[in-house]
């Protein structure tokens, strides 16, 4: 029955995540390997806690308080983040609403008992490449009220909010419009006839000629990984006034036709998707639709690939979610640090950070206000 100061547990975990730790056992290993160095600024009177202690304490920390500390730190550094990220010319800030499944946290037992993977809802600021909201959820359908609650607390003026068909709800779009934001949402069969209303607009024999004549057409062409991706966007304004009244701010339906061609084999695949939007600028809508996948490429993929979240088999929801918040904070620091190091990837930077820990931490602290980092960590105390 040994007492460990909470600030030591939180700070060791955060530093371990920066150094490459992805599981509670690796957090303990980091602490033991770096104990001599840690003692230069932490008392460590009772040594390094066990991995079970780290996991147990993080399962007890209030997630909301840890989240507030994370958000406070990220928002305070917004200016520095903007300076190292690509500038946006359209004047809009792009927010993506999307859920993520933690694939290593579920269990399939020999009996009929099954434990579902943990789910997390993210609101990702694609413009600044940071996660500004994160909350664990129980079931996939629970994403809807969680997202609505989060959006109500945000200033959405000048923002485009994008989301998949699950969140294309009347209450959701009303909240976005009430908060002075715009939206582009996916359409499937669960929007009470909205998809059926949209799809007939795009049944012209020659969509390309029809929309080029009207001016509501936009096309992109990308070549990467041995494939050519062509996207054609068509926009039309709905004519039924009742529909526009029912869906707050609705101004347009957008059809995206994506064709992928394998350069080597010549094989082509085509996918058609429909969207509803409060914007009637086809190029702006196209950028928002394309940009929505940044939450997958720059957040979800990075959490799995660079931060190894899928390797973490923690079943306790709060403990996993709190460690994931640490991962997101570290990920943001790595993105800021990457242009200064010459390392080609976040995953690579995380490795070399662990290899030359004190040196890279020195670079990090020279680029940030040490008090900001200390305040963010101290404010996470339970």
> What's the count of strands?
11
Computed structural class = alpha+beta
Low-confidence stretches: 84-89, 375-382
Share in helix: 40-55%
- Supply the number of helical segments: 17
Topology:
Layout: H1 6-18, H2 24-33, H3 35-38, H4 51-58, H5 63-76, H6 78-84, E1 93-102, E2 107-108, E3 114-115, E4 118-125, E5 130-137, H7 143-152, E6 159-163, H8 170-178, E7 182-187, H9 194-198, H10 207-214, E8 217-224, E9 227-236, H11 241-246, E10 252-262, E11 268-277, H12 282-291, H13 294-305, H14 317-341, H15 346-355, H16 357-367, H17 370-378
Parallel strand pairs: 1-6, 6-7
Antiparallel strand pairs: 1-4, 2-3, 4-5, 7-11, 8-9, 9-10, 10-11
In short:
The chain is of the alpha+beta class and 382 residues long. It is 45% helix and 21% strand.
Write up this protein:
Helix content is 45%, strand content 21%. The protein is built from 17 helices and eleven strands. It has helices at 6-18, 24-33, 35-38, 51-58, 63-76, 78-84, 143-152, 170-178, 194-198, 207-214, 241-246, 282-291, 294-305, 317-341, 346-355, 357-367, 370-378, and strands at residues 93-102, 107-108, 114-115, 118-125, 130-137, 159-163, 182-187, 217-224, 227-236, 252-262, 268-277. It has a nine-stranded mixed sheet with strand order 5-4-1-6-7-11-10-9-8, with helices on both faces. The relative contact order is 0.15. Mean pLDDT is 77; it is low at 84-89 and 375-382.
Key traits:
disordered C terminus, 45% helix, 382 residues, alpha+beta, single chain
């Amino acid at each position: 029955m040994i007492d460990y100061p909470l600030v030591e547990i939180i700070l060791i975990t955060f530093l371990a995540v920066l150094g490459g730790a992805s599981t509670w056992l690796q957090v303990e290993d980091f602490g033991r390997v770096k104990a001599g160095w840690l003692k230069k600024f932490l008392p460590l009177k009772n040594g390094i806690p066990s991995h079970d202690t780290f996991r147990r304490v993080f399962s007890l920390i209030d997630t909301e308080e840890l989240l507030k500390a994370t958000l406070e730190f990220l928002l305070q550094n917004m200016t520095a983040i903007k300076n190292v990220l690509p500038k946006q010319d359209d004047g809009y800030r792009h927010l993506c609403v999307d859920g993520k499944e933690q694939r290593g946290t579920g269990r399939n037992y020999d009996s009929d008992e099954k434990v579902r993977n943990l789910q997390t809802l993210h609101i990702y600021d694609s413009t600044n490449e940071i996660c500004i909201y994160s909350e664990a959820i129980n079931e996939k359908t629970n994403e809807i009220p969680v997202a609505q609650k989060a959006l109500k607390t945000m200033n959405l003026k000048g923002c485009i909010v994008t989301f998949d068909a699950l969140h294309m709800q009347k209450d959701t779009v009303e909240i976005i419009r009430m908060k002075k934001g715009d939206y582009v949402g996916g359409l499937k069969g669960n929007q009470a006839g909205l998809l059926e209303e949209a799809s007939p607009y795009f049944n012209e024999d020659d969509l390309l000629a029809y929309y080029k004549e009207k001016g509501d057409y936009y096309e992109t062409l990308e070549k990467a990984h041995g494939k050519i991706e062509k996207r054609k966007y068509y926009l039309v304004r709905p004519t039924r006034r009742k529909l526009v009244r029912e869906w707050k701010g609705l101004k347009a339906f957008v059809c995206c036709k994506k064709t992928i061609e394998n350069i080597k084999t010549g094989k082509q695949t085509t996918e058609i998707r429909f969207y509803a939007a409060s914007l009637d600028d086809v190029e702006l809508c196209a950028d928002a639709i394309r940009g929505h996948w940044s939450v997958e490429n720059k957040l979800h993929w990075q959490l799995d690939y660079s931060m190894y979240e899928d390797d973490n088999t923690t079943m306790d929801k709060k403990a996993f979610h709190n460690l994931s918040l640490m991962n997101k904070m570290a990920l943001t620091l790595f993105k800021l640090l990457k242009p200064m190091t010459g390392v080609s990837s976040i995953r690579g930077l995380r490795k070399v950070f662990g290899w030359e820990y004190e040196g890279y931490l020195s670079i990090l602290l020279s680029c940030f206000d040490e008090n900001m980092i200390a305040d963010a960590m101290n404010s996470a105390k339970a």
